[in-house]
Design a protein that fits this description.
This protein is α/β, with parallel strands linked by helices and about 475 residues long. The chain has 14 helices and 25 strands. It is globular, with a radius of gyration of 23 Å.
Length: about 475
C-alpha cells in the first residue's frame, strides 16, 4: 500500500454535504445548466473512478473560467486531491507558473486541455453528468486548500487552509439555509466567492451563478429569475449594484458586506433599500479567514469585542492602533517556509488601522496605504467615507499625488450620482462638505469628476491611477 493510500480515510468533504439535499432543490443554477445534488454526486463519482483517479492524493491546481464547471470541480477535488491550488482568472502566466512551482503542482484541471502553456499535465473540468454504477462510499483525504493573497502592494503570498479553517464560521443549519437562495458575484477562486459557495453548499442553500462576462443588469435579471434573496458584495460593488437597473426586482433577506470598510453611508442605504433584509458586515481576509461579523447596522465594531470577542476569535490593538486577530485553533499557514503568518502568541497583524471613539472601533484604512501630507498621515478610506456621505456622490476613490513641498497631496476622483448641472459648482460644494468633516490637510487638494470608477475582479475599488 502506498503512502497516499494510507492517508485516505472516510473523512468529511464537500461531496458528503450533497447527501443532505433530499428535497429536489438545485444545488447550483447557472446560466444554462442546473445541477441537482444527485447529478453532482454521480458526476463526482464518475470522475473519481475515471480519468480523475490519477489525481487521488496529489497536488492539483484549478483554473476554470466557467463558474459552474469550476464549482463542480471543487466538489470533486475536495477530499480527493491532497492539495488544491485555486488560480484566479486573468493571472499573468509568469505569476501562474510561479504559483505552480511554489506549490509543487503535479496536475492542472483547466479548460485548456493539451495546451502548450501548462508545464504539467492537464485534465478537463467537470462539465456534464455521466452515469456511473457505484453504490459504495469513496474514501477521502483532508485536502489542503491554497489561495493566493491579492498582492495589491507586493508579491502575492500563498496561504494554506483546511476545509475546517475555511468554514470555521459557516452556518450549517440546513433547515434555515433552505430558505435562502444566494447569488454569486465573485469568482470562487477568490476568498470572498469561495465563502459564498461554501455557505450555500454546507448551509443547504441554492447557489445561483450568473455569466461572469455579462453586465451587472444582466446578472441581476438572472438572480431575479431564480429568486435570489441573499447577496454578498464589497461596499464598492454594492454601490455599483444600487445604481444598476434591476436591483429593485430583488427581495433580499440578507445583504452581506466584506472585503473593504463598510462605512455608515452604505450600511444605512442598504437598510433603507432592503428593509426586510439582515445586514451583515464580515471582517475577513485570505490570511485570517473569517474573523467576525457585525449585525447592528453601525460602522466598525463595538469596543466590547476587544474584551469579549465573538466566539472563535480574539482581538487586540497594538501600540500603533493596528488590529491584531487570533483565530481559535487556526490551521492556516503561509506556504513559504520560514514565513510567519502570526506572531509568537498566534496573533495575525491585519494591517488595518483602528480609531476608537464613541464606544466603537472604527476602521480607518490599510496602514500601508496612508498618504503623507507634510508629515501628517491621511487614510484614503477615511476621506472616501466623508465623500460618500454627500447625496450627490455615487462612488469615490482617494489617492495621493506627489508634491515638491508637502511630499504628497490628497486627490479625490468622484463619480457623481447624477451628472451635475454645473460641475465646478459641484466640486466646490464637495470641498466645503469635506472641510466641514475633516481637518484641512485631509481635504482633497485635487478633485476630479469622472463618469465611472473601475472595480477590480475582487469587487474592490481599483486604486491604480
Amino acid at each position: 500500500m502506498s503512502d497516499r493510500d494510507r492517508q485516505f480515510a472516510l473523512m468529511p468533504s464537500l461531496a458528503h454535504a450533497l447527501a443532505g439535499w433530499t428535497d429536489g432543490r438545485p444545488v447550483v443554477a447557472g446560466p444554462s445548466r442546473v445541477f441537482s445534488a444527485a447529478a453532482l454526486s454521480a458526476l463526482i463519482a464518475a470522475r473519481r473512478l475515471g480519468d480523475g483517479a490519477s489525481l487521488r492524493g496529489g497536488v492539483v491546481a484549478v483554473q476554470v473560467s466557467d463558474q459552474v464547471g469550476l464549482l463542480s470541480t471543487l466538489l470533486w477535488l475536495d477530499g480527493w486531491a491532497g492539495t488544491l491550488l485555486l488560480l484566479p482568472s486573468g493571472l499573468d502566466i509568469a505569476v501562474r507558473d510561479d504559483f505552480l512551482r511554489r506549490s509543487e503542482v503535479e496536475w492542472v484541471v483547466a479548460e485548456e486541455v493539451g495546451g502548450s502553456s501548462w508545464p504539467v499535465p492537464v485534465l478537463p473540468a467537470l462539465d456534464s453528468v455521466k452515469q456511473v454504477n457505484w453504490s459504495g462510499e469513496l474514501p477521502t483525504v483532508e485536502t489542503r486548500w491554497i489561495l493566493p493573497t491579492s498582492g495589491t502592494t507586493n508579491i502575492p503570498k500563498l496561504v494554506a487552509h483546511t476545509l475546517a479553517s475555511l468554514t470555521r464560521t459557516t452556518n450549517r443549519n440546513r433547515e434555515k439555509g433552505a430558505a435562502y437562495v444566494w447569488g454569486l458575484l465573485y469568482e470562487p477562486t477568490r476568498f470572498a466567492g469561495l465563502q459564498v459557495f461554501l455557505q450555500a453548499v454546507l448551509g443547504g442553500s441554492t447557489l445561483v451563478v450568473p455569466d461572469f462576462s455579462s453586465e451587472l443588469d444582466e446578472r441581476l435579471a438572472h438572480f431575479a429569475q431564480h429568486g435570489v434573496n441573499a447577496l454578498s458584495a464589497t461596499p464598492t460593488l454594492w454601490r455599483k449594484l444600487l445604481m444598476t437597473k434591476g436591483i429593485e426586482s430583488l427581495s433580499l433577506r440578507q445583504t452581506t458586506l466584506g472585503g473593504e470598510i463598510a462605512d455608515q453611508a452604505i450600511l444605512t442605504t442598504l437598510t433603507r433599500t432592503f428593509p426586510s433584509a439582515r445586514v451583515v458586515h464580515i471582517y475577513a481576509s485570505t490570511e485570517a479567514g473569517v474573523g467576525f461579523a457585525v449585525t447592528d447596522g453601525l460602522a466598525g465594531f463595538p469596543t466590547s469585542f476587544l474584551q469579549s470577542p465573538p466566539p472563535g476569535v480574539e482581538l487586540r490593538l497594538d501600540s500603533d492602533s493596528i488590529l491584531l486577530l487570533r483565530p481559535a485553533r487556526s490551521q492556516v499557514t503561509y506556504l513559504e517556509p520560514g514565513l510567519a503568518l502570526a506572531d509568537s502568541e498566534g496573533f495575525i497583524r491585519t494591517g488595518d488601522r483602528i480609531e476608537v471613539r464613541d464606544g466603537r472601533c472604527h476602521f480607518l484604512g490599510r496602514d500601508s496605504g496612508a498618504i503623507n501630507v507634510g508629515g501628517n498621515k491621511v487614510m484614503p478610506e477615511e476621506v472616501e467615507a466623508v465623500l460618500h456621505l454627500h447625496p450627490g456622490v455615487a462612488l469615490a476613490r482617494v489617492g495621493a499625488v506627489k508634491n515638491p513641498i508637502t511630499g504628497q497631496l490628497v486627490e479625490a476622483r468622484v463619480q457623481p450620482a447624477h451628472p451635475p448641472a454645473d460641475p465646478e459648482s459641484f466640486k466646490r460644494e464637495l470641498r466645503l462638505h469635506c472641510a466641514a468633516h475633516l481637518p484641512p490637510y485631509k481635504v482633497p487638494a485635487l478633485l476630479k469628476l469622472v463618469a465611472d470608477l473601475s472595480v477590480s475582479s475582487a469587487g474592490k475599488i481599483s486604486r491604480q491611477a
